[in-house]
Amino acid sequence: MGNSITKFLNDLYDDLENASLNGDVERVRFHIDRGVDVNRSDDVRRTPLYWACEEGHLEVVRSLLAAGAEVNRYDRFGDNPLTMASKKGHLEIVQTLLVAGADVNRRSIYTDTPLHWACLKWHLEVVRVLIAAEEDPNRNLYCGNTTMHIAADNGNLWVVRPLLIAGADVNMGNTNDDTPLHMASSNGHLEVVRALLSAGAAVNKCNNFGDTPLHRASLGGYFKGHLEVTRVLLSAGADMNRCNNDGNTPLDLASKNEHWNIVDLLLRKSLPKITLDISLRIPEGQHIFGNSPYTNASYSYYKKKLEKIAGQVINERRGLIEVLRCTNLEKFTEGYVHCSKIRKSGWRTLSVEEMKILTLGSKGFSPDQPISKHIYEYL
Fold it and tell me: Which UniProt keywords apply (predicted)?
């Protein structure tokens, strides 16, 4: 007899759970009227209210709450009905749960809160409601990421803005000491970078690896957005000369990863104005700037340009360039004349200055106006 009663009650609860999951409000009310326990949970401690909130069934949620469903009941992972409604972006259900006393700051076993999920899933209106309910925007996950880290990493400007208004800390670091600006810069999120800088983000703050946001933008410079992010960071006072823990400057990272648009920009910003004089530079073959990241990046940059001019890969052999093949320049240009003078030497080392002059040779200067009579800015 006892087993039959237990089975009967289990069947009733299962039917209530299924009705809540599927949004069958009439069947939910039918079971409520017959006294089925609305707070009974399944194997992972989830109640009918949890399922109704996850699936977005507002009327079912209201009926269950009116029948005494516990609004702050948590499953085995620490998630409550508010977490599920926030994750799925069910705004009206979120508002209903808050009115019923849902705890906005309760963490799951993974340390996330409803606001973390709303930011991650781009549910702007839910974010605003949770902030208005006084959820702390600076609560961090086990990895140290705050809601601002999440929004910045995703490039979600519309979520970043209300978080800033709510007082989110733009300089808080995660476990790697990455700030939201590091993340936005790394992913090329230009407008988010601008918003963070306007809110006082530290442009030269280093993470645990010694990387600044400029390092991150330079490393990720393959995409066009990173070039514009680099410009904005430089305008905000980013230090181009700072080395990370591996001894790399932003220019080193851009050059090593062949992000030539970033290399071009950093060289324009970093190197002094000089006079390129073919009569002085070429015979001596000296590097004007000595051994530095700028020299190495310049050399790689102009080698790439020469390859484009020559229409082929320029071979290297133990640091030597085969200049014999670098003759695909317009006749009677200074670059062509110079290349003709040195081609007989075959394999030899070219200085940065020689690389630049060969590159400039494609611009059509005539012998009557040799490069030695012109002043050029480096780049």
Answer: ANK repeat, Repeat
pLDDT digits (tens, 9 = 90+) for 177-235: 999 999 999 999 999 999 999 999 999 999 999 999 999 999 875 555 589 999 999 99
CB atoms within 10 A of CB 152: 34
Q: Give the whole-number percent of the chain exceeding pLDDT 90.
A: 53
pLDDT of 132? 92
Per domain, the residue ranges of the chain are 1-135, 137-270, 278-373
- Please, is 287 exposed, middle or buried when counting C-beta atoms within 10 Å of its C-beta (0-12, 13-18, 19+)? middle
pLDDT digits (tens, 9 = 90+) for 157-166: 999 999 999 9
H-helix or E-strand spanning residue 306: helix 293-310
Q: Are the C-beta atoms of residues 349 and 376 closer than 8 Å to each other?
A: no
Output Rg (C-alpha) for the chain, integer angstroms: 32
As given in the structure block, the two tokens for residue 309 are 């001019």
Instruction: Report phi then psi at 344, rounded to 5.
Output: -65, -20
CATH architecture of 1-135: Alpha Horseshoe (1.25)
Fold agreement (1-135, 137-270): yes
Strands (E), the chain: 316-317, 320-322, 347-348
Q: What global pTM score does this model have? A: 0.72
